[in-house]
Amino acid sequence: MKKKIFQVVAITIAVSCANLAFAAPHWNHEEQATWWEIEDTSKDLPMKYPFATCGVGQHQSPIDLATAKFDNTKKLNKLQASYPIDPAPVFFNSGHGIQVNTSNDYKGEIKIGEESYPLIQFHFHEPSEHVINGKPFAAELHYVHVGNDGRIIVVGAAIDIGAENPTFQTVLDNMPHEHASQKTGANITINPASLLPASLDPNDLDFYSLAGSLTTPPCSEGVQWYLLSQVITISAAQLEQLKSFYSDNARSPQNINGRTLSSTN
Length: 265
Prior knowledge:
Layout: H1 2-17, H2 53-56, E1 69-70, E2 79-82, E3 90-93, E4 98-101, E5 109-112, E6 115-125, E7 131-132, E8 135-136, E9 139-146, E10 152-161, H3 166-174, E11 181-183, E12 207-213, E13 221-228, E14 232-234, H4 236-245, E15 260-263
Parallel strand pairs: 1-15, 10-13, 10-14
Antiparallel strand pairs: 2-5, 3-4, 3-11, 4-6, 5-6, 6-9, 7-8, 9-10, 12-13, 12-15
């Protein structure tokens, strides 16, 4: 039953954070500067502007990491990723990006201190959404988790060009090209842990953390971000294959507005 509740929440999260098409006004990344102006003509104020937070929110994501000040005065809880192999993943083309939804009984989770947050899905942006001194990485991976209380935790990993990643190839090879479509199949498994940076200990991940938001409409705030300190790699050919689905599906960096970064480094 708990997992079923998570799935209901996951639908909402997928709509926002992983770019699902749903019964809300159409949007695209090309018009991101005016997402907040998009109207839902079927609703009255204030619901007439469902994406208003994209324009007025003060804790928006992503950011340019070089613009943030560090505050390491508080001890940070350990970040532990437990992502076993999923025997029945769902490969989903949302209409805005490529995404893998975990199966109904999947036990993968992120643990922050003593609190656990189930892994609901992971998806990709090209180029990266978080940047350093205005420079993006080739792409970015977001693991999306939802707690019992509905709290959203996103673990992000920057992607550089380098060695091919076999798990990422599984994602690419099984992803449907048709928008708002999905694929499942017998004997297709996925290992989300194999996408984590190989140089990091999954039981004690190094990270940068800050409060933020979903990076797609409705840009809801209250999301806690954990950005891994090391990159993962995909090959140049894999990047081109990713771009054959979606290119430039990244939100521009947002104002830091006094937020600080915490770091394990």
